[in-house]
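Example 9 (inverse folding). The structure is encoded as follows.
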C-alpha cells in the first residue's frame, strides 16, 4: 500500500496549479465580454493553449477543449501514485461507480461519488416526475445507489414533491444526517412553477464543488489531485458553455443563470 507521505511532491504541484484556476469574477467578466475578449481572458490564465484564441466555431472549440482535457488526464496520470484510482477519471456512466470503489479511493472521494450518484438520481427522479413517466422507468434508470436508497425514490414517486423535499432533509450519511433540501428547495419550486431545470442544475453543481473544496486542506494523499481534476473539468465545462453561448447569441442574463460555483 502506498503511503500518503509519498504524495508530498504531487500535492505541492497541485497546490501551485490551483493558483491558476479561473476565479468567479473572471468568468463573470467573460460573459459580459465579446468573443475575442472572453477567449483572451481564459488564455491569460496561463494554463490554456493559445489555440483557444483562434477558434471560429463549435467544432474548433470542442477540439481545443478535448486537447485540454487530455493534457489534464495525462498530468494526473503522471503524478498519481495509486494508479488504480485512474479509473475514477473515466466514469462515462454512474453504473461504473461500484467498480470504481473497488480501487479503495478513501472516505473523502467515496463520499464525493456517493453525493454525485445522489444528485444524478435526484435529477432523474424529477425529470421523470415532471414528464409523468411510469414508475417502472424510474426503477430501470436508477442504476446505482448513493446515500439515498432506490426504495426511497420509488416510494415517493407518486406523492407530492413537498413530501420528497421533506425526506431530503433527513438523509443518512455514514453516522450523520445531511439536508439536501436546504439547497434544493428553491430550485425544485422553480421547476414546479416554470418547468425549468436551470436553477436545479446550478444548485447541484454548486453543491458538488462545495463537497470537493475541503480537499484544499488535505496535505497528503491522492484526494487533492483528484479534486483538482474534477474542479478543472468543471472549469472546462464553464468555458464551453460561455463560448457556445457567444456563438449562438444567447443573452448574457441566461448564461449568468447557469454559471455555477468554481473551485478557485
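The amino acid assigned to each position is listed next.
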Amino acid at each position: 500500500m502506498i503511503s500518503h507521505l509519498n504524495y508530498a511532491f504531487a500535492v505541492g504541484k497541485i497546490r501551485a496549479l490551483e493558483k491558476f484556476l479561473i476565479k468567479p469574477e473572471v468568468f463573470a467578466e467573460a460573459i459580459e465580454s465579446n468573443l475575442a475578449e472572453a477567449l483572451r481572458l481564459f488564455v491569460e490564465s496561463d494554463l490554456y493553449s493559445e489555440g483557444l484564441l483562434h477558434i471560429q466555431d463549435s467544432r474548433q472549440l470542442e477540439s481545443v477543449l478535448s486537447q485540454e482535457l487530455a493534457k489534464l488526464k495525462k498530468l494526473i496520470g503522471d503524478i498519481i501514485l495509486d494508479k488504480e484510482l485512474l479509473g475514477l477519471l473515466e466514469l462515462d456512466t454512474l453504473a461504473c461507480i461500484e467498480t470504481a470503489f473497488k480501487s479503495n479511493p478513501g472516505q473523502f472521494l467515496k463520499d464525493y461519488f456517493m453525493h454525485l450518484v445522489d444528485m444524478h438520481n435526484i435529477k432523474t427522479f424529477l425529470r421523470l416526475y415532471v414528464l409523468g413517466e411510469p414508475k417502472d422507468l424510474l426503477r430501470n434508470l436508477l442504476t446505482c445507489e448513493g446515500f439515498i436508497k432506490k426504495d426511497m425514490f420509488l416510494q415517493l414517486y407518486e406523492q407530492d414533491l413537498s413530501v420528497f423535499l421533506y425526506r431530503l432533509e433527513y438523509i443518512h450519511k455514514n453516522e450523520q444526517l445531511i439536508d439536501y433540501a436546504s439547497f434544493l428547495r428553491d430550485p425544485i419550486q422553480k421547476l414546479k412553477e416554470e418547468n425549468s431545470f436551470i436553477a436545479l442544475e446550478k444548485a447541484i453543481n454548486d453543491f458538488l464543488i462545495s463537497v470537493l473544496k475541503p480537499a484544499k486542506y488535505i496535505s497528503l494523499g491522492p484526494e487533492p489531485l483528484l479534486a483538482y481534476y474534477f474542479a478543472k473539468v468543471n472549469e472546462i465545462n464553464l468555458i464551453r458553455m460561455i463560448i457556445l453561448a457567444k456563438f449562438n447569441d444567447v443573452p448574457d442574463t441566461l448564461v449568468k443563470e447557469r454559471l455555477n460555483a468554481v473551485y478557485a
